[in-house]
Amino acid sequence: MITELRIADLGVINDATINLHPGLTVVTGETGAGKTMIVTGLGLLLGGRADPRSVRRGSERARVEGRLKIENAELLQQVKAVGGELDDDELIVARHVTAAGRSRAYLGGAQVPANVCAELTATLVKIHGQAEQERLTEADRQRELLDRFAGTPVLEPLAKYSTLWAEERGAQTELAQLRKQAQSRAREIDLLKFGLQEIERIGPAPGEDIALAAEAVRLQSADDLRDSAQSAVHALAGPEDEAGGALAMLYAARKAFESATSQDPAAAQLGDRLAEASYQLTDLTADLARYLDSLESQPGRLEQIAERRAQLNALTRKYGTTCDEVLQWATESAVRLTDLEQSDERIAILETRIEEVKTELTSLAADIGTARRAAATRFTELVLPELAALAMPHARLNFEVSSADLGSSGADRIDLVFAANPGSELRSLGRVASGGELSRVRLALEVVLAAGQDAATLVFDEVDAGVGGKVAVEVGRRLARLSRHTQVVVVTHLAQVAAFADRHYVVVKADDGQVTTSGVVQVADEDRAIELARMMAGLDTTESALAHAGELVELAASARASVIAPR
Questions:
Q1: Count of CB atoms situated within 10 Å of the CB of 153
Q2: In whole angstroms, what is the distance from residue 281 CA to residue 289 CA?
């Protein structure tokens, strides 16, 4: 339930605050005063599209703020999830729209996207404007109303149906894609197989190309390497069959220093170091000799390396720049090949699952259809008396539920058929109903729906379009009855409707010749007749108009007492 609505710099409204309570609240005012800005402001709070042209001329931004009383625990958790908090057990929703076109939405003090406001407030407030009246002629909207009235017997299987329908649509899309890509998939499979077979045949090892390149350089430099190693060995050990070299000189040094090591402890340490150097130099000489032996010529090895490198180059030209990249390609391609080869199996799985889901959908659709037909009968029985009360005693209306192909909402075609007069043929509502008849049908449906639904705030803009006189009185009476179950806000230009209000607000317009400004004031009980008289007679409130308005107020008060329980 909305407890307060504040609008600033929206349209012609400068600054207005409306305190809302349970029951029926009406908003009236002269043509052009800005009554519809009330509905526009509520639409912004509910996440509606922000239009910078709605910002009042000369202002930087329009601001709308609403306080909503909520008791739904799940909704409270959603508010907390987006960072919002309650203020005195009420949720503050705000929307700012700048003249430059920027828009910001706030939920419980937290800035959120406008669509979050729309999702969280969708169950709290419902706006019925002219667009809603036009939607009433659409089959989808008629189905939604019927399902809403049917409740659990339809909504529960419909939820399961929707889940399965989405699964079936997804499976069909995937299946079509797999079939469409059959040729390209076959070509890719052949290419991957060829590549993997080629790599397997050559059998590269990790880092093999780098190792072979280094070995080739070594073999090509073998003579120079041998000369260098031979010279180093000679320098250490001396020429073959000759004494000398560094080892011989080091040995001589050790022998010469032996006498000193036995006489001086300090010399002994030096002797140890000479011995250690001799051992290390001996090991180094042996290693150099082994390295020299390894440089013996290997006839044909260079040709073997060149041939192997040519095989590896054939792979690196196609599958990577190194052997490691080629092996990585092979690993990834093996996985991809497995996926591609499983596509045919996937197609078979999808085909089987689609048939299973279709069977389930058909069964659920039958249950939904049966529940809809039963609900259509009950709905019609309840709506007809409401139409009769709205000065349409001979009207006939029915929700025709006929079979159709499986669709997103079942296998039913819903058509709300209508005839206003005796003897007239029942035909689709949109083809035969006038604007006034559509207004009354819409109101009759809402009255019936509200009686069995969770409380929400219903906002009606021009619900009385195309009606007047006694019919308008009955529209007011029905709105009063509707407000017995839920909070109702009505923007109206008819005194007969406004007379039934629990609270009456008037949009007052002021014009200084340059800028038109509007505000909203509540009409006190003693001034109700004056405002209603103005609505009936125009700017001049004559004595007869005041008398008529007084009678209207008394009639409405008497009618409200008979249909509305005390609040």
A1: 16
A2: 12
| Alpha helices in 320-403, H assignment, sequence order | 323-341, 343-389
**Given the DSSP bridges, would you call strands 61-69 and 90-98 parallel, antiparallel or unpaired?**
antiparallel
Measure the CA–CA gap between 518 and 127, rounded to whole angstroms: 22
Per-residue pLDDT of the chain (567 residues; tens, 9 = 90+): 899 999 998 888 888 888 888 889 999 887 766 677 888 888 888 888 888 888 888 888 999 999 988 877 788 888 888 888 888 788 899 999 998 888 899 988 899 988 888 888 877 888 877 677 778 889 999 999 999 999 999 999 999 999 999 999 999 999 998 888 888 888 888 999 999 999 999 999 999 999 998 888 777 777 677 778 778 877 887 776 666 788 788 888 888 887 787 778 888 888 888 888 888 888 888 888 888 777 766 677 788 888 999 999 999 999 999 999 999 999 999 999 988 887 888 888 999 999 999 999 999 999 999 999 999 999 999 999 989 888 888 999 999 999 999 999 999 999 999 999 888 899 999 898 887 788 888 888 888 887 766 657 888 887 766 666 778 888 888 888 888 888 899 988 888 888 888 899 888 876 654 555 667 888 887 778 888 888 876 655 667 767 777 777 777 777 666 654 443
Q: What percent of the residues of the chain are helix, what percent strand, and what percent coil, each to the nearest 5?
A: 60, 20, 25
Beta carbons of 387 and 441 less than 8 angstroms apart: yes
- Who's near 130: CB < 8 A, 6+ residues apart? 461, 462, 465
Q: Fill in the amino acid letter for 101.
A: G
**How many CA within 13 A on the CB side of residue 527?**
9
Of 146, 185, 458, 166, the closest CA to residue 344 belongs to 185
Q: What is the dihedral of CA 173, 179, 180, 186, to 10 degrees?
A: 140
320 Ramachandran zone, left/alpha/beta (phi>0; psi -120 to 50): left
